[in-house]
Write a structure and sequence with these properties.
Keywords: Dioxygenase, Iron, Metal-binding, Oxidoreductase. GO terms for molecular function: dioxygenase activity; metal ion binding. The model has no long low-confidence stretch (mean pLDDT 94). The radius of gyration is 20 Å and the shape is globular. The protein has 370 residues and is an alpha+beta fold. The protein is 15% helix and 26% strand.
Length: 370
Amino acid sequence: MAVLPLTVTPLPCPSGSDIDFGAEIRGVDLENLNDEQFQMIRKALYDHHVVVFKDQKGLSPKAQYELTKRFDPASEDYGHGKTIDTKRSILHPDLKTVPHQPQVQVIGNGQVQSYEGLKDIQLRHPHHRTFHHDHIPDDKDYDFTRFYRWHIDAALYDLYPPQVTTLLAVKVPKGRRQTLLYDDGTGETLDVPLGTTAFVSGERMYELLSPEDKEFVRTSKIEYAPHPYIWMSAARSRSTGLGLHSEGLELPDSDLPPIDPSKIMVFPMTWKNPVTGKLALQIHPSAILRIHCADGTTIDDLARVRDIVYNLQRPAISPQYVYPHDWVEDDLVLFNNRGVLHSVVGAFKPDEVRLFRQCNLAASEPPVGP
């Protein structure tokens, strides 16, 4: 049988949308990927940021890991590493590790009897009521939803942010859509598929800035909190999922695991695309602590730091710039973790079972700035 050539097709832009990223790739066997095909996939990924492979039923965890690793051959460990003090980390309830491929995690919702060596696992889809300062009333929970937390996949302490993330949809509940509410006074809403993963482009986020703000983000750096997912565990998110309220609820250093100052991460606000050279505004808004300015001064007031970053990022999460992927079973989505932000969305009923596999690897090199 003739082998079809690898094709890259940009995703269609829905009516009313202004997304300028995303593509679908067909004609490749990810279980048996050759170097030429990988180079085409790599170029497509950095051109389009979010790449969809349909019909990946049976893709092994090993092949998923190997595709992810191929973007950074020197990487090896799961992107968040071995989370210290897991019970206090906000990531603790969301991940189960595949025993025979420990870099691959299982996420989702509901009870799963058996999957890839895991037995009788209870998966819990993150819900905004556990993290937001306020939430949608329970009686409206299945009709309305919010962005849970806009983020970059990254430990942001000790380990460098992964180059890419892969997500495989194994089981997807269907049949409902939800209205996503921003609840920030703008009146903005977005119609989304149940349990979508929402993406926005960091490059668009940069392009929307004023010339003055572009200069600021090109020349400033963000310092992240030590052990950020424990540090933020008592704090609560804004209604847009874009960063936290400042109420003094962050844990003091004395309540965190031991801190090694050499492992605290300070990154440029903008990261350079390794293929196109374009700049993306890449900041994890929930984990930020300080801003280091070009003139050598530091902005230490946490509330001010958060407000500055929020005002820089908020325009690019407006509905017309959001790509909410409509998951179909056996979709594999590969995304540029250094060029997009993403968020979990949605509220599932207990019997709506969702099963996904996730893989990302802590990078061997830090992000490159301007």
